[in-house]
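Sample entry (187 residues):
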Amino acid sequence: MNREELLRELARHAPEGAGEEKSLALLGAFVAGPSDPFARENPEGHVTASAVVARPDGSAFLLVLHRKLSRWLQPGGHAEPDDASAFDAALREAVEETGIGRFDAPLGRAILDVDVHPIPARGRDPAHHHFDVRFLLTTGADADPAASEDPTRPIRWASYEEAVSLGVDASLERALRKARGRLRDQG
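Predicted structure, serialized as C-alpha cells:
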C-alpha cells in the first residue's frame, strides 16, 4: 500500500464531529509515523479498510455479523500485500465478505469516514488498534449476498433505522448517516 497516497486522501477528508476529528488526527499521525502502518505485526495497530455498502438510493445497508464480536459491522478488514490502496482493500473485502461481484463507487476513491478503535487481546494477538478507513460502495437492488469466504457468516440488508436498532456502534451509525445523506443528495 502507498503511505503517501493515503496521507493525501486523509488530508482531503473533512471529518464530521469531534469523534471523527479525533480519529482522523490519530490516523494521520499513525500513518505518518516511523512504523509500517499496514503491518499486522505492528504492536500499536494497523490500518484497516472497510466499505459502507448501500443501495444506490441510500435506503438500505449491507451488514455482516462479526462472530468474534457478536456485532453487526460493515464489510472490511486487513490490507493484503496485493492491495494497492486502502480503497482497493475495502473493495476486495466487500467482494469476499458478501459474494457480490459488482460495486459502484459514488464518491470515487474518496474517503467516506475514518474511525480508530481498540481491539482486545485475543490468543497470541495483543491488544492493539484498528485505524479504519471507510469508503462508500453501492450495488443494485437485485444484488443479494451470496456465498462468501465464510458461508456461515450472517449477512443482511438493513435500513438506517434497522441498523441502529441492531446496535451498530456510534461510529458506524455516523458513517451510515453520512452515506445515506450523500446518496440522497446525488439522487
